[in-house]
Fold this protein.
Amino acid sequence: MTHSISVGIDALAFAGPAAYVDLSDLAKARGVDPAKFTKGLGQHRMAIASPCEDTVTMAVESGAQAVRAFGIDPDEIGTLIVGTETGVDHSKPVAVYVHDLLGLNERCRTFETKHACYGAMAGLTASMDWIASGRARGRKALVIASDIASYGLGTPGEPTQGAGAVAMVVSEKPRLLRIQPRTIGDYTRQVMDFWRPLYSKYALADGHYSIQCYLDALRGARLDAVGERHDLLAGLSACLYHVPFVKMAFKAHQRELEMELGHALNKAEASTWQQLVESYERRCAPWLTLNADIGNIYTGSLFLSLIDLLRQAGADMAGEDISLFSYGSGCGATYCLGRIVEGAGDWRAALDPGEELAKRRRLGIAEYESLVRAGEQADRCETLDPFDYGLAGGLYYTGTRNDRRHYERG
């Protein structure tokens, strides 16, 4: 794979809530076999945000971590884009709050992108175009995916919740992943597979239809990126996908292999099914441990897998090619190829969130349900005290007074 210009991801960081629910606890409380969640969905834990942790606070914490850990001067940031489908205002973008709280330069283009789970990929490719056009003038872009996936207590989507933010710094001299613009393919189609009306706190979804829309978009975006290739997977060391739940990656990888073989696969065809399983276990499964531990984070799910890959194999895979597929309901998608940069393994400690995840607090089901109910009213609360939720030492939402959201460090 050749590269006409060197643009890509220079820094990565994750930030998320301080608490989680173990899905075995949730399964017992809901009277179902835990294997339905842990094996059927591939999920083990899901991050749960308190009323004081929102899209803004997580975006700020991830952005600050990316800039700090990779030694980037905030004045180098000339574009800030926040991709989210769980914003805090119908008009005012999350990005403006983030810009202020990170102390970025006023000469910084700032906006929010929304297209369900596709928003961050839209921000990534837009920032690459900004750099390639010459407008950046040596500056970098900060792209942040920040979301809270919430479906309500006792609903079918409850075990596929999660929360978190992934921050990416994009530059013309990336230290982690270089992306080839000529291998970026897109797909768009108007579908009603997943949406959240203005009058609803929770999303509406047609789950089986959404999976089909996802797979159709994967086919369309890949065809736009690389055409009718029948040998692409053989040259890739990893395949990363949008993962609303971990087992979706298997379905996606199956579709890719079917495109290469030219026919559908089923378990009755032992040899080709084994080929699929072996390819998935080598190219996909190892990089899904963070997704299984954090849950669905919408716009950031794909990039959480990228963090997982780089923290585990950034050194071993230096110089090797990978694919990335982003899907957002409604729907929009992008498929692209990237190459892991030599020296990417040197940044393992800077991007690995393992230490912070180990500090999270395991919620009992009663406490979890109480947090969810409190969160439903958080936007209308005048005063919120992070201490009430066991929080300290971070940035928190502390209530809406005179119709203005307030954020403070605790």
